[in-house]
Amino acid sequence: MKRRNFIKKASATSLGIVAVSSTLMSFDEKSEDKKAVILSTLKPIRPLVIATWNTPLAVETAAKILQNGGSALDAVEQGCIIEEANEKNQTVGKGGLPDRDGDVTLDACIMDNKGDYGSVLGVKNITHVISLARKVMEDTPHVMLVGEGAEKFAYEKGFKKENLLTESSKKAWENWKIKSEYKPIINIENHDTIGMLAIDKKGSISGACTTSGLAFKMAGRIGDSPIIGGGLFVDNEIGGASATGLGEEVLKTVGSFLIVELMRQGKSPQEACEEAIGRIVNKPGKDFKNFQVGYIAVNKQGETGAYSIHEWFSYNLFKDGENKNIKSDYFNKA
Ligand code: GLY
Hints:
By secondary structure, the protein is of the alpha+beta class. The protein has 2 domains: 3-40, no CATH class; 48-330, (Glycosyl)asparaginase (Glutamine Phosphoribosylpyrophosphate, subunit 1, domain 1, 4-Layer Sandwich), CATH 3.60.20.30. The protein has 12 helices and 13 strands. It has helices at 3-9, 12-15, 20-25, 31-41, 56-67, 72-85, 129-139, 147-156, 167-179, 247-252, 255-264, 269-281, and strands at residues 48-52, 106-111, 117-123, 144-146, 194-199, 205-211, 232-235, 239-245, 293-299, 304-308, 314-319, 322-327, 329-330. Strands 4-3-2-6-5-1-11-12 form an 8-stranded mixed β-sheet. The chain has a 5-stranded mixed β-sheet with strand order 7-8-9-10-13. Helix 5 packs antiparallel against helix 6 (72-85) and helix 6 packs antiparallel against helix 7 (129-139). It is globular, with a radius of gyration of 20 Å. The N and C termini lie far apart (47 Å). Glycine binds at residues 193, 211, 213-214, 223-225, 244-247. The site of glycine (GLY) has 11 residues, from strand 8.
């Protein structure tokens, strides 16, 4: 039997469900055709949650929702809420490091399996901006609300006003002001923007992303996190991707959209993340030594990928009933 026909007849069990992409790489015939055949016979991994950085509680919260039959959309929202409420995390939600004027401003976005999207940008005084982004998606005719408009909308929707600047973030800002040197910090406390992707039991994919943005940024600065295709992109037919790190570099390469499109063209999530990092570091004259970008991705089958410029990016992955923190592979091994 020709190898091509064998693949068509093979069952999911005999092929197994792991290492789909590496299996495909060894084929010498038309790989796209074969990939379509194999993917259609394999049992997808679900439910599944993947999130940037060491975020066990956030991922566990999302996973429980999925295991109980909840939607990927509810899972990513509730997962992100955990980190937004965690005052010790100085890169997300309450307790986030402020801009150079001492104001904590938050960005967030959410995207569902229907391709709908909502985001809020530069929001003060509201902790759970991921839920606010969801309200924008579900309760308004718009996709983005910024600053005072977003805050006004939050109060209309019953969100409470909170002081987001904790004592420890205030101290960090006062120390920063002594020199006022603006420099992105690589792997801030091995933490940064939380990007989360989930596949529910029905196979629907959703994603969410929430951040306080760069520490000591200029007032009004917005990064990649709330921008569709930058910090997050989901296409329920293909998969999803999310970013962390220096948002300016993610935006210049439309990183998350790029990863999903590369997966659409047949790349594995890992290959797609690596190529997206390559688009940043291979720009002529790009000095990537002083900034970090990390990506996570998942495809419809539940294959995952992660890659960063520098060492120490990690991600939490829940699959097959286990929630693990995994160190990402990275580009700069010099
Ligand atoms: N990735 C977060 C930011 O640049 O704002």
